[in-house]
Design the sequence.
């Protein structure tokens, strides 16, 4: 039996268009083939016959009867298909990915907001898995409009994100606080690189902290995003950048969530 909550199911059903008894655009045959490939089950077996026996009801029965690991696998494949549908709401896709990640057993993403606040400052990279934030955003004020949209999409998907407007920093020593956030308290740091970014003292402090953390952890925690052709000082030239020229804030948020899945 999966641990999907009532709220989880409502979000997933909306994304997969299950209100009318369908699941995405599957026919009976293609849905059967999909479930066999994704989960190795015969979705038309009597064990999954629930209510009207529609595709949506059979998927509901599958969610109820099968364990989290198998349900998460099917969800990931369904979400990929929903994502390819141009009419899908990216907020719904992000929220669904968060649910699938939790079922998959990603403990980093299961810490509640209340728990994060109560343990602020105690996270350590020593464990390799315990972080206060899933992702932190480092940017110059000139790019705030774009970055705020990314932050809000991540927040709506229940990703723990450090974004200054979401935090109560009143009275805190920002030099110490930001050094911790960007060096050890975040699983990933997205740096929005621009000429404005490298010209500011505070963003350079964030950059130095993030790069120091990257060296200490020996990982790919720093994810550079280009607003222009500026290179990030201290980042190896072999590290790939992502240009936002053809990437919407919604798309970038989705790519961040995909990164967290790996």
Sequence:
């Amino acid at each position: 039996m999966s641990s999907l909550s009532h709220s989880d199911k409502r979000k997933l059903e909306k994304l997969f268009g299950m209100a009318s008894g369908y699941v995405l655009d599957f026919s009976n045959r293609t849905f059967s083939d999909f479930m066999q490939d994704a989960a190795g089950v015969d979705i038309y077996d009597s064990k999954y016959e629930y209510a009207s026996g529609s595709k949506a009801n059979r998927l509901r029965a599958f969610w109820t009867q099968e364990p989290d690991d198998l349900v998460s696998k099917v969800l990931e494949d369904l979400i990929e298909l929903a994502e390819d549908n141009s009419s899908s709401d990216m907020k719904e896709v992000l929220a669904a990915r968060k649910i699938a990640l939790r079922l998959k057993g990603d403990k980093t993403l299961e810490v509640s907001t209340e728990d994060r606040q109560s343990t602020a400052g105690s996270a350590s990279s020593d464990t390799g898995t315990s972080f206060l934030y899933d992702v932190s955003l480092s940017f110059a004020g000139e790019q705030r409009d774009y970055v705020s949209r990314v932050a809000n999409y991540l927040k709506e998907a229940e990703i723990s994100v450090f974004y200054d407007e979401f935090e109560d920093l009143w009275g805190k020593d920002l030099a110490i606080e930001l050094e911790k956030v960007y060096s050890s308290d975040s699983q990933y740091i997205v740096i929005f690189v621009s000429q404005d970014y490298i010209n500011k003292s505070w963003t350079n402090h964030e950059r130095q902290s993030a790069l120091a953390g990257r060296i200490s952890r020996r990982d790919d925690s720093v994810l550079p995003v280009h607003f222009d052709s500026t290179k990030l000082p201290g980042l190896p030239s072999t590290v790939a950048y992502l240009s936002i020229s053809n990437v919407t804030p919604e798309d970038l948020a989705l790519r961040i969530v995909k990164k967290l899945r790996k």
